[in-house]
Automatic annotation (TrEMBL):
Lineage: Bacteria, Bacillati, Actinomycetota, Actinomycetes, Kitasatosporales
Gene3D superfamilies: Mitochondrial biogenesis AIM24 (3.60.160.10)
Entry-linked Pfam families: AIM24
Residue runs in coiled coils: none
Organism the protein comes from: Streptomyces lividans TK24
Protein name (Swiss-Prot/TrEMBL): AIM24 family protein
Amino acid sequence: MAMFRLQGSKVLAVDMTQDAVKAKNGSMVAYDGEMAFKKLSGGGEGIRGMVTRRITGEQMTVMEVRGQGTCWFADRASEITLVGLQGDTLYVESSNFLAADAGLRTGTSFTGTRGASQGNGLFTTTIEGHGQAAIMSDGPAVVLRVSAQYPLTVDPGAYVAHQGNLRQSFQSGVTFRTLFGEGGGEAFQIRFEGDGLVYVQPSERNTIAGDV
């Protein structure tokens, strides 16, 4: 299995011994040894991944990198967080995906109102199995624990990913910026209940739900 490690906070190094990884197309910045690159169709595996992304107009292209040596990945100086999967599923926004072990299954999941409120389409990327994945964020990601006693409410513009046994619901609400008349507030908030982890970034992406 390929070995993921960070060099600094914004570059992912993957050591491979005839292994393979899936990575965001165009994210390779350097490599040594012998590497082969192949573009994969769609952000998910199979027909469903291709069709759902075509319907929603999402532009997520993934490449497979296979070889012997080390390959380095980065994208727009984004901060990178490594996520270990032990048979569970990671749900990550397409724009926040960087790389994953080739043995992990990737696909798509319907997000409905959440995706519409974020302006990211109606589907999000799923990564499932045993192995490592790397996700990106605008600023260092913060990992928040959700438990039965402590549900979590997240601004959709700050949401990056989540994993675990979590249920999502959507509620209308205001942010402090809306409260003080500065605009840019979110008409929707995401509420997580159950047991799991939620990854958020300290910088909000532009969404289409504000000021509704």
